[in-house]
């Protein structure tokens, strides 16, 4: 089975588009290509222009494609439904008009995907990674979040032919093992799949290998991260927001951390995973000067454990 490695703008610190320190989007494209990636994610809504012709031209110059767009927003508040639906339509309009990613034999759904992540809750942000501290949604609030996710997923599917994938995220209301299992039960498989992230799984107290295996039937897309064990132990002993922990370097290049990527590769081979894996490394954008070196290092390490270079891939 073919696995294609891509990357994402968060490796350059692009998470909050209101942050004045974000690097130019063309720089991110150029450095992703220079590091040996054939594709990358669009980044948060509003980072790259919502002009498919302009973005397509820049991608083509660098031989790139976009593997996914992202909704990274409050999925809980019913009053946010209109905004979420507008984002879904705008993002899908862009990503479906860009150069198409390759399709591998055995891949469940064609890319590009729409990754859907809950974010924007201060109490949960400070409780990121702490199962025992995190305030859970009551049944009514959970049902409202499910309704918002399903509405967005149906827009992506029915209006644009795009597969929505729910991404559990540290500091959001879909983070821990019980919440992932519950959202998988409550959102039908024909409406959305899962995009599990090895780093967020570890941060939330899960074994990434076991988490991928447990949710295999819903797993349509994967994110790879790595975690510095010493920094992780330090931030977990303090009251700190998730992205502040990232600014302190809790996420590191893949291969420099504590996540067992040879075991993950063995699992993906045994299960026959085909499709995309996106390398991420959240950081402070003020440190984006090190991004090119880090994403290149992650790519080279993955090659040593059996993930092929783009020139060696056989995607169709």
Written overview of the protein:
Residues 30-292 form the Xylose isomerase-like TIM barrel domain. It comes from Paracoccus angustae. This is TIM barrel protein. The protein has 316 residues and is an alpha/beta fold. It has a single domain, classed as TIM Barrel (Alpha-Beta Barrel), CATH 3.20.20.150. The chain has twelve helices and ten strands. The chain has helices spanning 25-34, 52-62, 81-95, 122-126, 139-160, 177-186, 198-203, 208-214, 229-236, 242-247, 261-271, 291-304; strands spanning 3-7, 39-44, 65-73, 113-118, 163-166, 192-197, 219-224, 226-227, 251-252, 275-279. It has an eight-stranded parallel β-sheet with strand order 1-10-7-6-5-4-3-2. Strands 8-9 form a two-stranded antiparallel ribbon. Strand 5 (163-166), helix 6 and strand 6 form a beta-alpha-beta unit. Helix 3 (81-95) packs parallel to helix 5. The radius of gyration is 18 Å and the shape is globular.
């Amino acid at each position: 089975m073919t696995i294609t490695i891509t990357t994402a703008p968060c490796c350059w610190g692009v998470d909050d588009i209101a942050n004045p320190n974000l690097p130019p989007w063309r720089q991110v494209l150029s450095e992703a290509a220079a590091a040996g990636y054939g594709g990358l994610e669009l980044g948060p809504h509003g980072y790259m222009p919502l002009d498919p012709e302009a973005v397509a031209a820049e991608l083509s110059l660098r031989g790139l494609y976009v593997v996914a767009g992202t909704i990274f927003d409050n999925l809980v508040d019913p009053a946010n439904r209109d905004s979420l639906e507008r984002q879904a339509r705008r993002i899908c309009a862009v990503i479906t008009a860009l150069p198409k990613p390759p399709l591998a034999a055995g891949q469940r759904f064609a890319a590009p995907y729409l990754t859907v992540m809950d974010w924007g809750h201060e109490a949960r942000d400070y409780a990121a990674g702490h199962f025992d501290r995190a305030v859970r949604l009551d049944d009514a609030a959970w049902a409202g979040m499910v309704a918002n996710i399903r509405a967005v997923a149906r827009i992506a599917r029915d209006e644009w032919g795009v597969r929505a994938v729910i991404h559990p995220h540290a500091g959001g209301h879909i983070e821990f093992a019980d919440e992932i299992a519950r959202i998988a039960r409550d959102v039908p498989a024909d409406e959305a799949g899962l995009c599990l992230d090895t780093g967020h799984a570890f941060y939330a107290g899960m074994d990434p290998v076991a988490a991928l295996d447990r949710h295999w039937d819903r797993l349509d897309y994967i994110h790879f991260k790595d975690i510095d064990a010493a920094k992780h132990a330090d931030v977990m002993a303090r009251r700190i927001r998730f992205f502040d922990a990232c600014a302190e370097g809790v996420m590191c290049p893949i291969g420099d951390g504590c996540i067992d990527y040879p075991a993950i590769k063995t699992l993906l081979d045994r299960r026959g995973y085909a499709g995309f894996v996106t390398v991420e490394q959240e950081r402070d954008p003020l440190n984006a000067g090190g991004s090119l070196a880090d994403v290149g290092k992650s790519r080279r390490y993955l090659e040593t454990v059996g993930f092929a270079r783009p020139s060696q891939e056989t995607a169709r």
